[in-house]
Amino acid sequence: MGEFAFFWNNILNVLKTFGIGDLIDIIIIAVLLYKVLVFAANTRAGQLIKGISILFLVYIVAAALDLKSTSYLLEQVFSFGIIAVVVVFQPELRHALESMGKSKISNLSFLNFSGEKVDDDAVIKNCIAEVVEGVADLSKHDVGALIVFERETKLGEIISTGTIVNADTSKEIIGNIFFHNAPLHDGATIIRGGRVYAAGCFLPLSQNYDISNMLGTRHRAALGMSENSDAVTVVVSEETGVISMAINGNLYRDLTPSLLKKRLEELLVPEKTEPVVSKFFGKGGADEK
Length: 289
Hints:
Strand order of the largest sheet: 2-4-3-1-5-6-7
Radius of gyration: 25 Å
Number of strands: 7
Strand content: 5-15%
């Protein structure tokens, strides 16, 4: 009973000094812990946490049994563990931070450093119409294409891998870029501000290992771009001429030119830059995730 009374008195003493600041502190830690657990559950980090847990249990046993060499070795492992996690999971951590950057609070005017923006609906709609016409022509002739529409996430590092074009968007220039054996046809074309800004760019490939083997490098690159940014990527299959669109890590296939135009306008016209993707495509619309 004495130990229970001592324990209960300690709890009462803590509650007496408990203030609003302590409550806020607990809520912040709880939210952060929840986010970390969700992040771990949806990435390869989950397996890492399991491995760390096993090492920690081994450390406890080694300390209890006074195994000095094992304890010392594991202490050194834990000392450099944080650096190792950052290095190994750099893509996942970057994606998590970018997701925070896409949140509503990041859209406040004093936090917006994105540079040029196009507010003219007519310019964007004309760009979309020209791209769709060009894509439709490429699809008819089974000519592969990869076109990225830049949104809030700026793609400067992607653009730097290609050639600056900075031309008005037209179906003719889309056709010329992706024409067989053209110098820039193998890379991706970046649309910025309603203009064909760069071509021949290299995109990051998807880190999703569950992608169908039926999909080629273009589709994997489109998915990779959508996993690393909020960009909208249009793909034309060189084998089948099928038109697809990748956004938010999902690939939507077998789009007609008219449906592609409608979806691009819903996603890219300024008034509607934050639609719910499932609203457009419905459940089961994503062929690959």
